[in-house]
């Protein structure tokens, strides 16, 4: 029995694990759009979170212990607009599982987004993590160059959104750049940040503090563990939220961190820090962006401020409902704005796992649970003698990367990391062509050995 | 050169013919069919646990099966699980950056332990099926007071009877 898993991110790996356990005679072909595996673990997790990326060791050990049952095919995109279509997979496999993630970021409905100065949070993550897509060219130019042009020299950055990704952006922009040198951050980004005159990052959320989407862990890290960042928010608002009775355990501890470890917006202490030139992280609540207007060197962000109605304590989590009244609007001038509003999950066809199946949010470990749930209830009619895609790949001459090819890319990246002066971290290859060449060199060497071996055997017989 | 090529090809052939596992692990892996977790960074050999100091505990796995084990003092529950091939994942290898090693303890053992630190509590907030007796396996270290402790793994899947979830091809 042969099963295809499309997408080699965490959802794809956990799905493969579950499949191998549930169907003892199956083989899984892990098909990935990029030449390299691990998806958002490699390209979404912030570079200064190496512990979160350690799950790569688990995934790699899993593949290496089950080499005869797992084939990795990197650089093979599946889609109706691609050479390899979902209908092909139906012919080649007994079953196809889609673990393609949530590619569509949420936007601001009804708000015109200027083509300069405003980017998606994913653009930032891909830029910092050296994702090949960031170097692709569009009508407006190369995305990486546009971000670099706008981030360079900017003093104030705004992030729309109050989740973990928004905190990642703020932390990476504000933390002392020397702390980032030994991470796997893209060297060009590191260079740019080392000359950054950045003074503040503001995070804007439309809900009150208790409605923030970040986890306490992410908040606690940026507020208490990173030297050189002063975090501020409106403590008056916090007090109102903390009076609410039906708060969960995690919301309570999150609000506790905010009230004990941040500086009040109106305190003399904040002015003192500003005066001293500290980098400030501003957490702004009950503010909804309504318009952007472009200037020559910056963008004006217009926000609508709301306030919870007096008699609605405990119900003012969502200002979209009547419990909030609009107070006034403010304007903020920023060098660059990142939209970090999350992703639309649950899109795609076929059997789906991970963000493609769920809500497009959550932590790496959630995918294991989701994969187990979906795969434990599947049954496969083993009627067809499935051939897989290897034949299709060779007949079309499609360039792909095998697991051994990835291991070569991995080795090259680690070597570059040590040459760059990083003790444990890599410098990633950022171009698809370069990755393919490294992998193909490996394949050629293998062929060379095989050829030599054959000649050797023939000469002896 | 040719000799090297020959050896390498042979080694490769052998490596691809059978899963690359050695010693006692290979037997366990072969029996279970799938090997999911890498050895814990600071794991121990369960065959070399000193019986005079070993602490008895029971793991109740996701199917309800009970595993009576002996563990050395100082080992974390994550290490004990890995050393005994119990399916407890440690995605961040015990660095408090995930909640995949979430377990339930029995009440007396839970009460004997020091309160979880802030970082552990923050990660527990993200765990599935959190209870009053939840801890992260990587943070609970064996000590003689815990003799007879019972560790239960949380359910591996969503409770379909409760939320009626059935996967469908879309």
UniProtKB/TrEMBL annotation, chain A:
<dbReference type="Pfam" id="PF07992">
    <property type="entry name" value="Pyr_redox_2"/>
</dbReference>
<keyword id="KW-0560">Oxidoreductase</keyword>
<protein>
    <submittedName>
        <fullName>NADPH:adrenodoxin oxidoreductase, mitochondrial</fullName>
    </submittedName>
</protein>
<keyword id="KW-0521">NADP</keyword>
<keyword id="KW-0285">Flavoprotein</keyword>
<dbReference type="GO" id="GO:0016491">
    <property type="term" value="F:oxidoreductase activity"/>
</dbReference>
<keyword id="KW-0274">FAD</keyword>
<feature type="domain" description="FAD/NAD(P)-binding">
    <location>
        <begin position="1"/>
        <end position="173"/>
    </location>
</feature>
<dbReference type="InterPro" id="IPR036188">
    <property type="entry name" value="FAD/NAD-bd_sf"/>
</dbReference>
<dbReference type="InterPro" id="IPR055275">
    <property type="entry name" value="Ferredox_Rdtase"/>
</dbReference>
<dbReference type="InterPro" id="IPR023753">
    <property type="entry name" value="FAD/NAD-binding_dom"/>
</dbReference>
UniProtKB/TrEMBL annotation, chain B:
<dbReference type="InterPro" id="IPR036010">
    <property type="entry name" value="2Fe-2S_ferredoxin-like_sf"/>
</dbReference>
<dbReference type="GO" id="GO:0009055">
    <property type="term" value="F:electron transfer activity"/>
</dbReference>
<keyword id="KW-0411">Iron-sulfur</keyword>
<dbReference type="InterPro" id="IPR001041">
    <property type="entry name" value="2Fe-2S_ferredoxin-type"/>
</dbReference>
<keyword id="KW-0001">2Fe-2S</keyword>
<dbReference type="GO" id="GO:0051537">
    <property type="term" value="F:2 iron, 2 sulfur cluster binding"/>
</dbReference>
<dbReference type="GO" id="GO:0140647">
    <property type="term" value="P:P450-containing electron transport chain"/>
</dbReference>
<protein>
    <submittedName>
        <fullName>Adrenodoxin-like protein 1, mitochondrial</fullName>
    </submittedName>
</protein>
<dbReference type="InterPro" id="IPR001055">
    <property type="entry name" value="Adrenodoxin-like"/>
</dbReference>
<feature type="domain" description="2Fe-2S ferredoxin-type">
    <location>
        <begin position="55"/>
        <end position="157"/>
    </location>
</feature>
<dbReference type="GO" id="GO:0005739">
    <property type="term" value="C:mitochondrion"/>
</dbReference>
<comment type="similarity">
    <text>Belongs to the adrenodoxin/putidaredoxin family.</text>
</comment>
<dbReference type="InterPro" id="IPR018298">
    <property type="entry name" value="Adrenodoxin_Fe-S_BS"/>
</dbReference>
<dbReference type="GO" id="GO:0046872">
    <property type="term" value="F:metal ion binding"/>
</dbReference>
<keyword id="KW-0479">Metal-binding</keyword>
<keyword id="KW-0408">Iron</keyword>
<dbReference type="Pfam" id="PF00111">
    <property type="entry name" value="Fer2"/>
</dbReference>
<dbReference type="InterPro" id="IPR012675">
    <property type="entry name" value="Beta-grasp_dom_sf"/>
</dbReference>
């Amino acid at each position: 029995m042969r099963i295809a898993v499309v997408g080699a991110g965490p959802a794809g790996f956990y799905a493969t694990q579950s499949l191998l356990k549930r169907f003892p005679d199956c083989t899984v072909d892990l098909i990935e759009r990029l030449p390299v595996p691990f998806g958002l673990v490699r390209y979404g997790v912030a570079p200064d979170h190496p512990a979160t990326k350690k799950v790569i060791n688990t995934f790699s050990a899993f593949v290496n212990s089950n080499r005869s049952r797992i084939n990795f095919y990197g650089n093979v995109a599946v889609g109706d607009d691609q050479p390899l279509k979902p209908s092909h997979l139906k012919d080649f496999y007994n079953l196809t599982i889609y673990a393609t993630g949530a590619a569509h970021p949420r936007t601001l409905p009804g708000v015109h987004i200027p083509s300069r100065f405003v980017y998606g949070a994913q653009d930032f993550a891909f830029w910092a993590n050296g994702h090949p897509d960031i170097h692709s060219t569009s009508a407006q130019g190369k995305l990486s160059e546009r971000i670099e042009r706008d981030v360079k020299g900017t003093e104030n950055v705004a992030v729309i959104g109050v989740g973990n990704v928004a905190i990642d952006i703020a932390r990476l922009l504000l933390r002392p750049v020397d702390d980032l040198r030994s991470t796997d951050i893209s060297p060009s980004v590191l260079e740019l940040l080392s000359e950054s005159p950045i003074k503040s990052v503001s995070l804007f959320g439309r809900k009150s503090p208790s409605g923030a989407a970040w986890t306490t862990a992410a908040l606690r890290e940026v507020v208490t563990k990173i030297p050189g960042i002063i975090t501020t928010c409106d403590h008056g608002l916090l007090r109102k939220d903390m009076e609410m009775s039906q708060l969960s355990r995690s919301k309570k501890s999150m609000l506790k961190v905010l009230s004990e470890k941040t500086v009040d917006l109106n305190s003399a202490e904040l002015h003192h820090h500003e005066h001293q030139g500290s980098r400030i992280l501003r957490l702004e609540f009950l503010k909804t962006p309504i318009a952007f207007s472009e200037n020559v060197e910056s963008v004006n962000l217009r926000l609508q401020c709301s306030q919870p109605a007096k008699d609605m304590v405990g119900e003012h989590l969502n200002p979209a409902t009547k419990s909030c009244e609009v107070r006034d609007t403010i304007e903020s001038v920023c060098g660059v704005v990142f939209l970090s509003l999350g992703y639309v999950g649950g899109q795609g066809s076929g059997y789906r796992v991970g963000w493609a199946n769920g809500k497009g949010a959550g932590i790496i470990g959630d995918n294991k649970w989701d994969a187990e749930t979906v795969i434990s209830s599947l049954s496969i009619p083993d009627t067809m003698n499935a051939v897989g895609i290897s034949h299709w790949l060779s007949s079309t001459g499609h360039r792909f990367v095998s697991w051994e090819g990835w291991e070569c890319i991995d080795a090259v990246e680690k070597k570059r990391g040590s040459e760059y002066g990083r003790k444990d971290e890599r410098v990633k290859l950022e171009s698809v062509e370069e990755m393919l060449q490294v992998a193909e060199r490996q394949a050629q060497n293998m062929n060379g050995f095989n050829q030599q071996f054959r000649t050797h055997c023939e000469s002896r017989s | 050169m040719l000799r090297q090529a020959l050896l390498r090809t042979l080694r490769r052939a052998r490596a691809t013919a059978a899963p690359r596992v050695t010693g006692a692990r290979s037997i366990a892996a072969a029996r279970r069919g799938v090997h999911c977790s890498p050895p814990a960074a600071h794991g121990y050999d369960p065959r070399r646990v000193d019986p005079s100091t070993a602490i008895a505990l029971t793991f109740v796995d996701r199917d309800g099966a009970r595993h009576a084990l002996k563990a050395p003092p100082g080992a974390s529950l994550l290490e004990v699980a890995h050393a005994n091939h119990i399916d407890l994942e440690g995605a961040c290898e015990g660095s408090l950056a995930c909640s995949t090693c979430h377990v339930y303890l029995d009440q007396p053992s839970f009460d004997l332990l020091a309160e979880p630190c802030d970082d552990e509590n923050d990660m527990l907030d993200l765990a599935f099926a959190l209870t009053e007796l939840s801890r992260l396996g990587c943070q609970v270290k064996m000590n003689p007071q815990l003799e007879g402790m019972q560790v239960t793994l949380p359910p591996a899947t969503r409770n379909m009877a409760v939320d009626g979830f059935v996967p469908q091809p879309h």
